[in-house]
Amino acid sequence: MKTTLPLESMSTAEKLRAMEAIWEDLSHNEEQVESPAWHEQVLKEREALFNSGKESPIDWEGAKERLRGRRP
């Protein structure tokens, strides 16, 4: 079954609400959503960097700033 949304006519807020609804539905059935194999590899690499002291955690606000390019 193919589902299509009128993305070109949806506002950003409507698109975000649609994504949130989909995510909410998926999160109720976690066991049915298989994580890709590469996720495990990335997590292991990040854990190794953290354990070696080459990477440290940052708070969510800092992460958003970094992602938006406002902070190194």
Inertia-based shape: flat
> Spans of 5+ residues with little confidence (pLDDT < 50)?
none
Cα Rg: 18 Å
Order of helices and strands: HHH
Structural class: mainly alpha
Number of folding domains? 1
Specify the number of helices. 3
How much helix is in the residues? 40-55%
For the largest beta-sheet, the strand count, sense and barrel status come to:
none
Number of E-type strands: 0
Alpha-carbon distance between the two ends: 44 Å
Explain this structure:
With 72 residues, the protein is an all-alpha fold. It has one domain (10-67). Helices cover 54% and strands 0% of the residues. The protein is built from three helices and no strands. The N and C termini lie far apart (44 Å).
Task: For this entry, give a set of tags.
72 residues, 0% strand, 54% helix, 3 helices, flat, mainly alpha
Layout of helices and strands:
Elements: H1 12-27, H2 37-51, H3 60-67
Brief description of this entry?
The protein is an all-alpha fold and 72 residues long. The protein has 3 helices and no strands.
